[in-house]
Structure formats: structure tokens, C-alpha cells
Amino acid sequence: MDKFFDFDRTVEALQYGFVQDALIAAAILGVLAGVLGPLIVSRNMAFSVHGTSELAVTGGAAALLLGVGVGFGALAGAIVAALVLGLMARKGSEHDSVIGVVLAFGLGLGVLFLWLYPGRASNKFGLLFGQVITVDRSSILLLAVCAVVVLAALSVIYRPLMFASVDPDVAKARGVPTGVLAPIFAVLVGVATALGVQTVGALLVLSLMVTPAAAAARMTASPLRATILSVVFAEVAVLGGIILSLSPGVPVSAFVTAISFLIYIGARLYSRVRVAA
């Protein structure tokens, strides 16, 4: 039986073009997830990210069925989901229930589309658990363009969005358009989430979009330092997860989630030691 981790086999795998493409895509995704993550955590949007990622599967499944690019389908599905959730869940009291309703409907459609799809089962499972071999140069180009657009848009709205995230009532009283910022940010998160589906899969994209930021929030209260740490943690998780998955051939999401969880546990221990000191 092969060793669970074979260094020579991993080094050999790193020479393949598709693996290098996957690492480039993962690095871009890590930056996006790391920058957006602290805002997601501060705005209590973890469940929303989960719902958006699941509905990205619906868009990807529809794309498989129609014979078009899965990345474009997942992107379209996530954007539509983000808009619907951002517009329908404006009241905090109904936020979770709206996400649950839309999520259930979208998953039902996704299951139907996957059942109707006559192609290989690996394509279906790739939407759920990630598949690095599906990342090619066109996927990298789409990811890079979307990342630039998301980061550029975020740079414009960052300050009022941060204000609205920390104290929404005061921000609204000061004239910050919180009703407009919410759906805009939801769309930006939807784009990043959809791009993560192809790399780590929809079921576990939450670990990359939320866990590194949650760990960073445990270590510092500074928004800038939290963002930097979040990016570093996300990069370690996604790049490390891909590299560790090469030798045993295990789905990359298993390692990404494990690394993210260990980082989070370490951050919690650090915060306890710091408080005790």
C-alpha cells in the first residue's frame, strides 16, 4: 500500500501543468477569500455564504446539462442567489429563514439538473467536493478577471461597508446607504463563492470563506491585521490542501478543511493564552 503522503510523488505531480494551474487559481482564490472573510464574519453572513455556495451548484449543474462552461454557470447561479438573498433578507429577523427557503428550492433544482445530466459522475461530484484537474487556463483567466473586479468594487465601498458592519444603526443614521451596500456586498461574496466551487467544492467552500477570517478575528481586533492574517491563513489552507492531496489522490477539500480547522483551533488557543497572560 502506498504511503499516505509520498514526497517524491508529490514533487513529480507538481511538474504537471494542470497542477500548477490549480495552484495559481487557488492562490487567487485565497486572496479573495481572505479579504472578504473578515467582513463576512463581522456581518454574520456565514450561513448566507453556505446558501450561496450551494446555489452555485445549481448554476453549475444547469451549465453541465446545457453543455456550457461550469464556471460560468456556477458564477451565474451564485450571483442570482446573492441578489435574491440580499434583497429578500433585509430584516435581520427573517434573514436565516429566507436563506433556508431559497436554499431548499435551489438545491431541489440542482438535484434535478444533476439527475438529468447524462455525463460522467466525476463531473457531478466535482461540483460538490472540488476537482483540481478541471482548472485550466480559461478558468484562471475567469478567476483573475472576477478577482480584479471584486477587489476593485470592494475598495470603493470598503469604508462605508465596514462602518455599516460594525454599527449598522449609527451608519444608517449618518446617511450610509446600508440598503444598497448589503446586496452589492452579497454579489461580491457570491462571485468569490462561485469561484471557490470549482477548486474546493460547494459543500466545503465555507471552510475557506469563513474559517480563516474567524481565526484571524480571534487573534486581533484590528481590521487591517485581521485581513492580512485572513489572507495568510486562507493561502496556507488552500495551497497546502492541494499539495497534500496530490500524493494520496484524496479530494482537495478534505485537506483544505482540516488545515483551516487546525488554524482556527490554534487561533482560539492563542487568544486564551493571551487573555490569561
Please give a structural write-up.
- It is found in: Cell membrane; Membrane.
- α2 packs antiparallel against α9 (178-200), α3 packs antiparallel against α6 and α12 (223-246) packs antiparallel against α13.
- This protein has a single domain (7-276), classed as ABC transporter involved in vitamin B12 uptake, BtuC.
- By secondary structure, it is an all-alpha fold.
- The chain is built from 13 helices and no strands.
**What would the principal axes of the Cα set say about the shape?**
globular
> Total number of helical segments?
13
- CATH superfamily descriptor: ABC transporter involved in vitamin B12 uptake, BtuC
Weakly predicted, low-confidence segments: none
InterPro entries: ABC_BtuC-like, ABC_TroCD
Membrane topology: Multi-pass membrane protein
Protein name: Metal ABC transporter permease
Transmembrane segments: 22-41, 62-85, 97-117, 138-161, 181-206, 226-246, 252-271
